[in-house]
Amino acid sequence: MRWSEQMVEASDGALPGLDRAGLVRSVQTPEFEGVTFHEVLCKSILNKVPENSTLPFRFTVNTFRGCTHACRYCFARPTHEYLELDAGADFDSQVVVKLNAAAVLRKELRRRSWHRDVVALGTNTDPYQRAEGRYRLMPGVIGALTQAYTPMSILTKGTLLRRDLPLLRQAAGEVPVDISISLAFTAADEASRALQKRIEPGTPSAAARLDLIRAVADAGFAPHIMVAPVIPYLTDGVAVLDSLLGELADAGAAGVTAFPMHLRGATKDWFLSWVAEEHPALLKRYRSLYGRGAYVNAEYSRWLRERMGPLVAKHGLAGAAREREAPARPVVAEPELAGALTLF
């Protein structure tokens, strides 16, 4: 069924934030039951990272706002409040699609002020969430960056990335292309598989993402894996982490970076409401661990580093120094880096 036949009325004043964002139409389809896609024409697409940031990139591009991955812990949830939507269910079901992302990006990259800095794709919401299969925004974005000789990095949980591997191989012949995949659950453990389905219900399975890692490696890339977020008390067991790192090494991962879950703004209440339903015995411990803010305390961060270090060494996943002058990625990221690198 054509999406043009699935339009819903969106001009009734219920979405004032979206009206400001350049709303063209809102669309529902049986393929995405319960989800409304708000198609917009954006005025800009390149987002500049603050000068004082320690991140290894200075610009980002996000083709969507909101994400059908529906990860309970997603740090980007509060950004939906800027659109006068809520950070909980609306983030999962009211997805903004930037229809003209590639055209606007090409225009911005033609500016004389553009210095071909690295552009990170997928720092806020996943560029390869399921809707990308319908909208096909990424081929145009990749093409625009390649034509402008602009290095790019991609972070995703989405197996749709496989579709664009031939295009990315072509791009890599012109500019540096860095591919990272997020996976913090092991395919071998039944409890881990069940947890993944409950806490990030819209994402591909761990097994599917391991297959993606193999495909990325076979395509000639060195896939870096974000073991992220490590969820305290649920995914930080040594046996689970050991199993996961073994799977990643076997799949061809070049290195890993891990960091503990952080709960910024409205994400904290959304996640804790899930804990209260699914793991009520842990609720008090989470309130204590995150009682002072969005991040775990220094003691837990240190504990995670001490746990991850030997396992990363055991499986040969320490990785190598980044190209050019960039430093090697840390095994366990510091809070500021973790807060900006995770999509989800």
Report on the structure:
Residues 61-236 form the Radical SAM core domain. Keywords: Iron, Iron-sulfur, Metal-binding. With 344 residues, the chain is an alpha/beta fold. The chain is 35% helix and 15% strand. The chain has a single domain, classed as pyruvate-formate lyase- activating enzyme (Alpha-Beta Horseshoe). The strands form two sheets. It has a seven-stranded mixed β-sheet with strand order 4-5-8-9-10-11-12, with helices on both faces. Strand 11, helix 9 (238-251) and strand 12 (255-260) form a beta-alpha-beta unit. It is globular, with a radius of gyration of 20 Å. The two termini are 31 Å apart. The model is unreliable at 1-14, 321-328 and 335-344 (pLDDT under 50).
- Provide a count of the helices: 13
Strand content: 15-25%
**Which regions have little confidence, pLDDT < 50, spanning 5+ residues?**
1-14, 321-328, 335-344
Q: How many runs of DSSP E, i.e. beta strands?
A: 12
The number of distinct structural domains comes to 1
Query: Which geometry do the CA atoms define?
Result: globular
